[in-house]
Specification:
The complex is a heterodimer of chains A (388) and B (397).
Chain A lengths: L1 H12 L18 H9 L4 H27 L13 H4 L7 H13 L7 H19 L6 H21 L16 H27 L4 H16 L2 H15 L8 H26 L3 H9 L4 H31 L11 H9 L9 H36 L1
Helix pairs in contact in A: 5-8, 5-14, 6-7, 8-9, 8-11, 8-14, 9-11, 10-11, 11-13, 12-13, 13-15, 14-15
Chain B lengths: L1 H7 L11 H33 L31 H34 L4 H15 L3 H13 L9 E3 L3 E4 L2 E4 L1 E4 L3 H29 L5 H19 L4 E4 L2 E2 L4 E2 L2 E3 L1 H28 L2 H9 L4 H31 L3 H4 L4 H13 L2 H30 L5
Antiparallel strand pairs in B: 1-2, 2-3, 3-8, 4-5, 6-7
Helix pairs in contact in B: 3-4, 3-8, 3-12, 4-8, 5-8, 6-7, 8-10, 9-10, 10-13, 12-13
């Protein structure tokens, strides 16, 4: 009884909290959007100044681009009159009707109009091959590799160059141009450089001194000189080195130059991959009695190439950008068609050059950025396995 | 018993075609024979072609009169008197000029952008990232053509030049800046300047030794600035400013006097620096990320401010990771300067592999010389960077 009274008395006199108070919310200015802005943009006076300067710069650039590409742009017109400040009496941005009219030229060059479906079919075939190779879960990727490295080149040659026996008239390569040539040069570089690059890399790591010497000589020589001199060499010296009856046409010479250049760079990328394979893999392969070629084919190269995929793709990005250099030796790639079109009197205005270059920039940006995203995704995928 | 048998027997006879040594020798001989055959074929074909086309061979053209003009030259050159050899040196010096300045500008811009990409300021890091992604993914040739045809050639004509106070002119023929001309008495300023450089080097050496021994720091920067800039300036004023600036004068058809910077040079320099800076920024970013976070945190906990912590603690360690890829970016810049040929800047390729090759027709000699020059530059640059790398590398026992 007394106990109960005592308890009652205590509970009346004292207060003991048996529950936590809910925590107070952090001050409003430290959370949410406001807090984020304070933390990331305005933390110190220097930071505030930087934010203001960069913000002004960004607004200036974005506004300028928006002005040029959309707000001040000319959307319709038949010739240069539509894009002249003197006739339109306003600020003129991009001259889109010029691009619209010249789009077929930018895509196919001077490829004969009735035959252009062949180029479209080539683009489609190439897209299938590229998709098959890049999609890592695709079915039968071994067939895909066969298609990409063997079937596609032969098929494309027949399709683009022509084969009179099956009713495809021959189209001389001087008529090829635009995106077609850019894609052809890049694809040939990609298809040729990987196998030759692997051979050169193996040669450079070979135990035979002669093989090592020639592989090293080729790689170091080509990597030590600018691409443009390799292209000059291919375009002015190659015709001297072969018998007169086999004189290669201009596009082929450029392709030889590009392939040589890309192979040397690819060789170094593959060599880095080979060096990353632990020695135990080689020794294990030898221990089970594999000779050199099965050891490389079955054990070393699959692992080495797997870890080099990001670097291989990065080399391809460089190669894709470098294809523009064929412009200098007179091949009509995308950049060259734009260089020709922008000074055409029908469309020549102060804004035509900038418009043409913008189109080319967007084209290269999309392709190269896409490739670099792919390389990064693959890298992340490969690291996932290593991290566990 | 069995062991005796094994040791007693000869190793099984390997057929000759399966002996690795024999195979290796045969492969190597085969490769050498194929390459020798190809080289021999190429040379005999080339000799054949050149004879048919009546093109001389050898390097006799080196001393012949060139007979063409070059728009920018660091050494005396005239179209009527100078030889192909002089034209070669003009082109080479122009290449080295644009590559040297390009390396300096690209390094500065690249470090700024690379460090900005890691800034805590969200906007700054995003803008730096956007710069890198955009510039890296657009071909350099396209960027050069844009700077040249889209920007510099789109500047006003000579009549409507932008002119600035002090005699600066900008138009579509280039930039014009005043040319400083020394008058008698300027030698004193030069002398004091030279003495100042020597004295500041000596001071820096002494200050470093004292810091090593006692830990006391000396204000090297201020002393150097005082010796190299302030002191000569005072002497300049005392001597009565013995220098005047020859401003460019705008005439009806051209601008005379002053220093002329041709638009080809400006476009190439901008293009190369901006393009290479994007790659250097990535190199710098990777280098800084490779220094463990603990280094910066330890510096902060010692009370070092973020700026000095970056400069004194993080960047010196990052340099070890940065230097090898940085040197290959420098090499790329030097090689990429050959794209000058597309916009008509008279570099080695434009002058020599372009004009001289067209005039003489001696493709083999001209291309070989050009390639030899670039190979030499590549080897020397990578040698220098290796030396620097050795100095910077971690000293291990």
């Amino acid at each position: 009884m007394t106990m109960a009274e005592g308890e009652l008395a205590i509970s009346e006199l004292h207060f003991v909290r048996d529950q936590h108070l809910p925590p107070l919310a952090p001050p409003a200015r430290m959370t949410g959007a406001v807090g984020w802005i304070r933390e990331n943009l305005l933390s110190t006076p220097v930071n505030i100044a930087m934010t203001v300067v960069v913000l002004l710069l960004t607004v200036w650039i974005v506004w300028g681009l928006l002005d040029f590409l959309i707000l001040d742009a000319v959307w319709t017109g038949a010739d240069r009159e539509a894009c002249l400040m003197s006739t339109q009496h306003r600020e003129i941005g991009a001259c889109w009707p010029f691009v619209w009219e010249r789009l077929p030229y930018f895509t196919y060059g001077s490829y004969p109009i009735p035959e252009r479906w062949r180029v479209d079919v080539f683009f489609a075939l190439l897209a299938i091959g590229v998709g098959w190779m890049l999609w890592l879960q695709a079915p039968r990727r071994d067939l895909g590799a066969l298609y990409f490295f063997v079937v596609l080149p032969i098929l494309s040659y027949i399709l683009l160059h022509g084969f009179a026996a099956i009713g495809l008239p021959v189209v001389d390569t001087v008529l090829w141009g635009g995106v077609l040539v850019t894609i052809v040069v890049a694809t040939v570089g990609i298809v040729v450089s990987l196998p030759i690059g692997i051979l050169l890399a193996l040669g450079r790591r070979s135990r035979m001194p002669t093989v090592r010497f020639f592989a090293t000589l080729f790689i170091e020589f080509v990597r030590g000189v600018p691409l443009i001199t390799v292209l000059f060499m291919a375009s002015v010296m190659l015709p001297l080195f072969v018998p007169q009856q086999f004189e290669p046409d201009k596009l082929l010479r450029a392709l030889v130059g590009i392939a040589m250049f890309a192979s040397a760079y690819m060789a170094e990328v593959v060599r880095a991959g080979l060096q990353a394979i632990p020695k135990g893999q080689y020794e294990g392969a030898m221990a089970v009695g594999l000779s050199y070629s099965p050891m490389m084919r079955l054990i070393v190269l699959p692992q080495a190439l797997r870890i080099t995929i990001p670097n291989i793709v990065n080399t391809y990005i460089g190669l894709f950008k470098d294809t523009t250099l064929v412009t200098i030796i007179g091949i009509f790639d995308l950049l060259h068609t734009i260089e020709v079109a922008r000074i055409d009197p029908k469309w020549a205005t102060p804004v035509t050059s900038a418009t043409g270059y913008t189109v080319a920039a967007i084209f290269y940006l999309i392709f190269c950025y896409g490739m670099s995203r792919y390389a990064r995704a693959t890298e992340a995928r490969l690291q996932k396995g290593a991290k566990r | 018993m069995s062991t005796e048998q094994v040791t007693g027997t000869q190793p099984p006879r390997v057929p000759l075609y399966n002996d690795p040594k024999v195979r290796s020798v045969v492969y190597q001989l085969g490769l050498a024979a194929i390459i020798a055959f190809l080289v021999w074929g190429a040379i005999s074909n080339a000799v054949d072609h050149l004879q048919k086309a009546h093109i001389a061979s050898g390097f006799g053209f080196w001393n012949q009169t060139a007979g063409f003009d070059i728009s920018q030259s660091l050494i005396p050159y005239s179209s009527t008197l100078s030889t192909y050899g002089t034209a070669f040196w003009v082109g080479l010096l122009n290449t080295l000029l644009v590559a040297g300045l390009g390396i300096v500008l690209a390094t500065i811009l690249g470090f700024i952008v690379g460090i900005s990409r890691l800034s805590k300021n969200w906007l700054l890091s995003r803008v730096a990232g956007g710069y890198v992604e955009t510039i890296r993914n657009i071909p350099l040739l396209l960027q050069l053509l844009f700077w040249y045809n889209g920007v510099l050639k789109a500047l006003p004509e000579l009549r409507d030049s932008y002119s600035f106070a002090g005699g600066f002119f900008i138009n579509n023929r280039g930039f014009y800046i005043p040319n400083p001309v020394a008058r008698p008495g300027f030698g004193w300023v030069e002398l004091v300047f030279a003495l100042g450089v020597v004295a500041s080097v000596a001071f820096a050496y002494w200050a470093r030794r004292r810091q090593m021994q006692t830990g006391q720091q000396a204000p090297i920067l201020w002393v150097t600035l005082g010796l190299v800039i302030v002191l000569p300036f005072i002497v300049l004023l005392l001597a009565g400013v013995p220098i005047h600036f020859e401003s460019p004068q705008a005439g009806r058809f051209n601008i005379s006097g002053g220093i002329e910077i041709v638009p080809e040079f400006a476009a190439l320099l901008f293009g190369l620096s901006i393009y290479t800076a994007a790659f250097i920024a990535e190199v710098v970013r990777a280098g800084i990320l490779s220094v463990s976070q603990g280094q910066a945190e330890a510096a902060y906990s010692l009370g070092i401010k973020p700026g000095p912590a970056l400069r004194l603690i993080v960047v010196p360690q990052a340099m070890r990771v940065i230097i090898p890829p940085l040197s290959s970016q420098y090499l790329n810049l030097i090689k990429n300067s050959s794209l000058a040929v597309a916009i008509g800047y008279p570099d080695l390729v434009q002058v020599f592999t372009g004009t001289v090759l067209n005039q003489t027709g001696q493709a083999v000699e001209v291309v070989a010389i050009t390639m030899a020059v670039y190979l030499t530059i590549s080897l020397v640059t990578s040698g220098l960077m290796n030396l620097y790398n050795q100095r910077m590398a971690l000293v291990e026992r």
